[in-house]
From TrEMBL:
One Pfam family recorded for the sequence: BPD_transp_1
Entry GO terms, CC: plasma membrane
Family the UniProt entry places it in: Belongs to the binding-protein-dependent transport system permease family.
GO terms under biological process: glycine betaine transport; transmembrane transport
TM region positions: 23-50, 62-81, 87-105, 152-171, 191-217
Keywords: Membrane, Transmembrane, Transmembrane helix, Transport
Domain ABC transmembrane type-1: 27-206
Principal localisation: membrane
Organism name: Demequina mangrovi
Gene3D superfamilies for the chain: MetI-like
Compartment(s): Cell membrane; Membrane
Protein's recorded name: Osmoprotectant transport system permease protein
Length: 237
């Protein structure tokens, strides 16, 4: 047992030296699938959320349909899509977009609904058109909620890409599956750790982008920290 464990370690630089090109290729596929799926999902989710915000009659059906898509098991969805969209990237992308929609639509809608009505009324009083109101008042105020949904959806998508192995296009999931079939621990561990690292890097990138796009939140966080320290000092005194 000990000999087999030594010969089949979980972490192996030798595996990376021998299979580095293959690992890199699958990492690139995994990353591109995630980014492409998120871009498409955002492009679909934002108009749907705006439509649901404008029309209460459409809000229920939009959230209902995206909710139903989210509840379909991922293996089943990819298997159902394969006969119509074929084996490969397109099938995986459709599935990933479908799963990301609920989180993105719901968070965007919550953000838009949470905009202070007094701010909206003031903008209308200044003669803002509906488009200008949306772009300069409602969406900027809804950004924190949208970013929160984007972070959740992105991390979930990184994990779901691996399920694409059922249609032969799972990025790092291909390495995981082959490693499990052959009980190759280094292959399993390497692909799993890269998935984790990719999710972390993308999440941090979104946080950094949000901080750049919402500079006003940095000041509010600093004020909250100062108030928190003041309360602690008062309690200690």
């Amino acid at each position: 047992m000990y000999g087999r464990t030594v010969d089949n370690p979980w972490l192996s630089l030798d595996y990376l030296r021998r299979s580095g090109d293959e690992v890199w290729a699958h990492l690139v596929i995994h990353t591109s699938l995630t980014l492409q799926a998120m871009l498409i999902a955002v492009a679909i989710a934002l108009p749907l959320a705006m439509l649901a915000r404008r029309s209460r009659r459409l809000s229920g059906p939009i959230l209902g349909i995206t909710g139903v898509l989210y509840t379909v098991p991922s293996f089943a969805l990819f298997a159902l899509l394969a006969p119509f969209t074929g084996i490969g990237r397109t099938t995986v992308l459709i599935g990933l977009v479908a799963y990301a929609l609920l989180v993105l639509v719901r968070n965007t809608l919550v953000g838009l609904q949470g905009v202070d009505p007094d701010v909206v009324d003031a903008a209308r009083g200044l003669g803002y058109s509906p488009t200008r109101l949306l772009l300069t008042v409602e969406l900027p105020n809804a950004l924190p909620s949208i970013v929160a949904g984007l972070r959740i959806a992105t991390v979930s998508t990184v994990a779901l890409v691996t399920v694409g192995v059922v249609v032969g296009y799972g990025g790092l999931g291909q390495l995981m599956f082959r490693g499990m079939q052959s009980n190759y621990r280094a292959q399993i561990a390497t692909s799993s750790l890269l998935c984790l690292a990719l999710a972390l890097v993308l999440d941090l990138a979104i946080v950094a982008l949000a901080a750049w796009a919402m500079p006003w939140t940095r000041g509010s966080r600093a004020r909250r920290r100062r108030r928190g320290r003041a309360r602690v000092e008062e309690a200690a005194a």
